[in-house]
Specification:
With 136 residues, the protein is of the alpha+beta class. It is built from three helices and four strands; from the N terminus they run H-E-H-E-E-E-H. It has a four-stranded mixed β-sheet with strand order 2-1-3-4, with helices on one face. 26% of the residues are buried.
Length: 136
């Protein structure tokens, strides 16, 4: 499945007293160019509840940070954003990742699987069907 990379995620900010600070931070991170945003869970120290262990989540996060920096040089600065989260509330077969704007949820996002998500989805816009978590 191919997804459209041309529609930016970021929309116009609402005017408020923090707008200049927020605008500067957004400009520094090239948020207006955002095409995809990956959120990845960090796991739990004990790995209980089906969650991955923190070491696995930390390693996945480190790789996502490296990959987004590489992709933003290769594609467009700010095209791919990333956020580490404590829990995505889907503690099974982690690390779990979700990629927006498509809203595709992935399981087992470490090692080779994470590389597939980076290369196929974040870089080329193709969903990695074998890692996708069915939502229905």
């Amino acid at each position: 499945m191919r997804v459209d990379r041309k529609a930016p995620i970021l929309r116009t900010m609402v005017d408020n007293e923090n707008e200049p600070t927020a605008r500067n931070a957004a400009a520094k991170r090239h948020l207006a160019a955002t095409e995809r945003h990956i959120f990845i869970c960090g796991g739990k120290p004990d790995g209980k509840g089906g969650c991955c262990r923190s070491e696995v989540g930390d390693a996945a996060w480190k790789r996502v940070k490296e990959a987004t920096a590489e992709l933003n040089k290769e594609l467009t600065p700010g095209a791919v954003q990333r956020t580490a989260v404590k829990c995505l509330q889907l503690c099974a077969q982690g690390p779990i990742a979700v990629v927006y704007p498509e809203g595709i949820w992935y399981r087992e996002c470490s090692g080779e699987n994470l590389e597939k998500v980076i290369e196929q989805h974040l870089k080329r816009g193709c969903v990695v069907e074998e890692l996708k978590i069915p939502l229905e």
